[in-house]
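Chain and backbone:
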Amino acid sequence: MQDYPKLLSSTGEVGFTMYETWYCFSPAKNNIKDAAACVAKGIPSYGAAEAEYNFYNWTNKVLAIAGVDIELETVKEDFNGMQFAFGPKILLDPQFAITFKEIKEKFVGKNKICKGASLILSESKVFFENLELESGSLKCANGNKVPGPAITFEKCGAGDEEIYQIRGYKVAK
């Protein structure tokens, strides 16, 4: 990608699109110890925990731009030397909506998702009008809206599976 302009003749034109980092860049390349060391130095961790955290924040920001009132968490929790203030945990499957226009069309009226809530959106035929999700979770799949308990995270230990240890936390039971 960086070498492409070098291949062009002197009359070649190159354009680019630039996005804010939160929108398109959150790699998960560092192990948990290296990630914590980066945070201690004041730089992004580029670890799995931060990548997942940024994924939730991306969804929260996009929904907020689309007009949904998103209540963000302000209290941070420590997971292996990294601080995160998880707000609502919203999973937006591509089947629900691909474009910003589609997302905006799915939420009509005044919709609010509180910081302790979880929302899983995984089908295209789901629409919301004046949704107020204060706590708990709502899973929307296969034509159903199924309520359940909120998704919360807890620190993981040495005995937990590697998939959780690379983040430093797991879903609380």
Observations:
- Helices lie at 4-7, 21-24, 32-40, 48-65, 100-106, 162-165.
- The two ends are 44 Å apart (CA to CA).
- The mean pLDDT is 91.
